[in-house]
Amino acid sequence: MKGYVLFPAISSLLCATAILNPNWLSIFIFLIWLIRLLFTRRKKWLIYSFLFMSITVFFVGVEKYNNQTSLSMDTKDFLIEMDPNQLKIDGDQVQFYGTVNQAGETIKHSEKIVVFFRLSTKEEKEYWEKQQKITEFVVTGSLTKPEKNRNLNQFDYQRYLSHNKIHWILDATSIKAHSGTENKAFWDLFNLKNIRQNILVHVERKTTVTVSSYIKTLLFADTSSIDDQVMNGYKEIGIIHLLSISGLHIQFLIAGLTYILWRSGMTREHTYILLFIFLPIYGSLTGWGTSIFRAVVMSLISQTGLRIRKPISGLDAWSWTLIVGLWIDPYQVFSIGFQLSYLLSLALILFSTSLFNQSKYSIINNLYISFVLTLISIPVLSFHFFEFSWIGMFANLLFVPLFTWFIMPLMILLFFSSYIFSGTLFFHFLIDLAECSLGMIEWLVLKIRLFPYGTIVTGKVPLMLFIVTTMVLITFLIALEQQKKRKRVLMLLITVFIVFIQYQKYSPFGEVLILDVGQGDATLIKEPFGRGVYLIDTGGALAFEKEEWQIRKNQTTVSSRVLIPVIKSLGVTQLDQVLITHGDEDHMGELIELAQGIEIKELVFPIGTTKKQSFFDAAEALEKSGVALRAVSAKRAREQLFGPSLAVLWPLDNGEGENNDSLVLYGKIGQFNWLFTGDIEETGEAEVTALYPNLKVDILKVAHHGSQTSTSERFIQKIKPKTALISCGLNNRYNHPNEDVLERLASLNAMVYRTDLQGSFRYTYADYLHIGVEKDFQTILK
């Protein structure tokens, strides 16, 4: 079966995907592949493909059957084994992935779980920071189900945990070390997870913060300590793969180790045996990530083939590795690491002797490789992140040789020197050299990151367009390799890519999204054909004063978690206007961070809002960065419209930025009349209805999250909305929305939609044609 293991491998991959995610597309692709396989009429291919598919069905079926919980929500006490490599401490929060060995009175358990624990003292934090070995803890707390995706195209945390065989989040109230842990002290010395943690701690102690972060990343696949801004820089210029242990790193280590062993007089046979022992141990020390597994197993297969004098081609080694990987953990097919690692390595193997070896100049071939790999990665990156970086195809030409021939050897030398030459002048020289080199590299990365239009935002592309683009891309690669019809296929590819990139931005459909930002407000409006994109309020969380040790460095925010991903998923790179209704933190708190991820052309707010210090500071910072500011009132903006033709109804004059000074906007979007009320209260509502007695409202954005101080009986009887949208946080401390408000709306037979219960609200329209709303709310606007 030499040279043809690819067919069973692809068959197994498509089979596993169809079983784990049985939608029409995965099943259709699998059936098309089977038909294509049958038409080959190659008996051996068919026999081996169906044999391996049968084995794959068994392993995947077992994994899918076992991927369920045996824990009960009523259980409060647990015995959990904690892996220090899965421990994260950020400010006053401890998070770790552990294994439940006992739940309540049930002893026989072995289920993964994620634990969150709030630290109360600095001494507690120091205790957790010293955890260096696998330890059992007695944990008391409450189990909660991971939340489903609550916003359009937002990262699905529940699905992510499920793919990692985790079904519960444990909010711990107390954690104590189990008394039986000490008995395992001797065996802990030989546990590779403990050895890995000891190595990481040693590196931290012996080197600087920057140097240790790169040693841990490049040699042990621990990226947690690299600065977030720098990491984002690597990602945005398309060279993040350099910080992931891949085939390049493994081949470098194998070549270096082989050279040293041979130079020391060791035979090829003994060298093979040492490599066969070293590579699995090294893989365990790095945590067996997808790329590491692929690189290590492929190397072992190739080395074994040479050892028994039956050379195994790179394609066969890749195929065998894929099959074994699927049998061990089929759920990895959903991770971007798996998809990029196997896809790009396959491209390198398939085109290495033809497409990537056409010029006698290595720099031309390297540019060819970078160009093709960037093209291939575009659909995957767009699918997961709604954007990709084209500048990476040039950045790789500089950074790949730099990391391969300088940074990697330097990190390896520093690692071994930290054990042998620690404290010597030679070691300090190496540290200074590394600090200087890494500093220059990070400076260069951040400078390149500022290059305009380096990242192209595609948004979430429709499925059919995604399929068409992928098929045209495959056709283009085949034409390149065969050197046939290249110009014609290139023009087709350019045309399809332009549509792929611009479709969401200039989609014929408009959107109104009431985003779920917790206890706050944020409404995104996108007009058809890219005529304009507007955001009413940004959401935000109240910041409580904390001691320095309690402050979290990597705390997720409304902007990073909701606003920026959702806006980018619609193909949007800039907001024409951000309209802030008033100066409360839950309506404007994300302004600064939002502006760092999405360009804002104009900031609109009611006159007097700048009297709120937090808003004043944010507006001043945005103005310095080039954002136009406009303070408005109903009197001053009487002849003006904002956003998608919205009129300012309130406030009339200067205010103080408080609730009753909220910007009230009214206008027609699609077929319906919308009223956005901010946090206006009963007295303000009365004045608005007095000024506009004939106000016709189809859809009301309920004021102040459904508080009893707003949405008075008199107000709603005047406007009689058919639909009421309430933005409030799940289990919020204010008990919003108020029951009286809900009863008032029910008396009008108004359809009530709440973000705390149903997540975000989406209305889609095509100019003046109503399309509908999300999921089970098709009748909401009738």
Report on this model:
The N and C termini lie far apart (63 Å). Among the domains are: 6-66; 77-189, OB fold (Dihydrolipoamide Acetyltransferase, E2P); 463-502; 510-542 and 554-769, Metallo-beta-lactamase, Chain A. The strands form 5 sheets. The protein has an 8-stranded mixed sheet with strand order 15-14-12-10-9-8-22-23. By secondary structure, it is α/β, with parallel strands linked by helices. Strand 14 (602-606), helix 23 and strand 15 form a beta-alpha-beta unit. It is built from 27 helices and 23 strands. Residues 773-782 have low confidence and may be disordered.
CATH topology of the domain at 510-542 and 554-769: Metallo-beta-lactamase, Chain A
Biggest sheet record? 8 strands, mixed
How far from one another are the termini? Answer: 63 Å
CATH class of the domain at 510-542 and 554-769: Alpha Beta
Task: Report the strand count.
Answer: 23
pLDDT averaged residue by residue: 89
User: Which structural class is indicated by helix and strand composition?
Assistant: alpha/beta
Task: Quickly count the helices.
Answer: 27
Radius of gyration: 29 Å
Helical content (DSSP H or I, runs of 4+): 40-55%
Multimeric state: single chain
